[in-house]
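In this supplementary section we document a worked example of the pipeline. Step one takes a protein sequence of length 485 as its only input; no multiple sequence alignment statistics are reported here. Step two produces a three-dimensional model, which step three serialises into structure tokens for compact storage. The input and output of this example are shown verbatim.
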Amino acid sequence: MAARRMASIKTVGDLREHAASLGVSIPVDDAVETGPEAPLARPCESRSGPIGNRFAILPMEGWDGTPDGRPTELTRRRWRNFGKSGAKLIWGGEAVAVRHDGRANPNQLRIDEANIGNFIGLRDELLQAHRESFGATDDLLIGLQLTHSGRFARPFDKKKAEPRIAYRHPVLDPVVGVEDDRPILTDDEIARLVDDFVAAARLANHAGFSFVDIKHCHGYLGHEFLSAIDRPGHYGGSLENRTRFLREVVEGIRAEVPGLAVGVRVSILDLVPFRPGPDGTGEPASTGPYRFAFGGDGTGLGVNLAEPSDFLTILENLGIELVCTTAGSPYYNPHVIRPATFPPSDGYLPPEDPLIGVARQIDATAKLKALHPNLLFVGSGYTYLQEWLPNVGQKVVRDGGADFIGLGRMVLSYPELPADVLAGRNPARKRVCRTFSDCTTAPRNGMVSGCYPLDPFYKARPEREDLNRVKQEAAARLSGLEEAE
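The serialised model returned by step three reads:
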């Protein structure tokens, strides 16, 4: 479908009218306020410490660590950019594997006893960059995201999947290439994985992080447990069993590292896996009833937040305060998690106007925030709004639809956006992310992630020529499908 480009929307009125034409509502303020009492500038008190404003940096992995899981200069540069962004909540930094077989690629960071000094240094560089730009850091809260990639693990070779799965998925397994004879993780193996998460949390605490995020999103293992309705044993079936992994990890952290806070980034809704249709546009990989979407309505295409709300009640009962919402998976329905006009090279043309995806995430987060007002919510999905991100983010925070506005892809091209907004400066148009998806296409083709179109640093890297070739081939493939149709 041909979606209206966000760059063509010149006024708030245009944005409202465009949203209305799509049948959705986007909360948006006419003007962005400045000063200490502005909605986005107000500090927030959390049990983990003061947080100086309402911007958060979402986990942004670069596929640029060393084979043994240490950060490189590319990693450190990204974290320094997080520090100079002006955001006061760093949600997880990036996905860090708790053990080798849980890495999503051979260059994903991994925390262990041998490289703990590297994580201390990584956090220190972020702090120093923030201190140099803004002075005090006593209202800056930094966490570390801990993960196991599950069915999307590629620990040894970027092109060779080594999936570790919680259950057999009749729709997703063939879509992502999980073999019929791939063994399911046993309950004993999961119990050992719990110990690995607890050990990683202990190391994160030693490295100085204020909290750890136990990742439950995007189709990775924590998220997969939430839909393991057909799994037998202690970790599947009922919601109590499907959350047992998380509860055991949290209980272990509380026993071994009682001063460390815990947060959870969770896909609060999911849809059926999609694939390119005859004309290259995304279409459902399965029709009819679909039982495996956590936060789905059973059709594969709709939303039901009853179980996600029950999940948040479990978090509250565990004493967890920090929640970061997201949706779907970048592997099997990327238009749900990262609304964009331009798909990654292995993706499909958007089956809906991307603004619908933005509205879906904002609305679902606001509904859950209303049901769980004592939790602190970080919302996601804002980058597609481009210049209008501050206007929408301010309205969301003002209305209580979320406590923080999470920034992901935008930070790669324009890390200082929060600082500019809070200072009353108009966003720098030439640095605003246009959702070209190069930051996804590059790692899907064996290259490091970064903003190749807009960041001069990545523009000058040798990978850019290869990336342009990959994009041209992908565009020709999609064009050929459209012509055939």
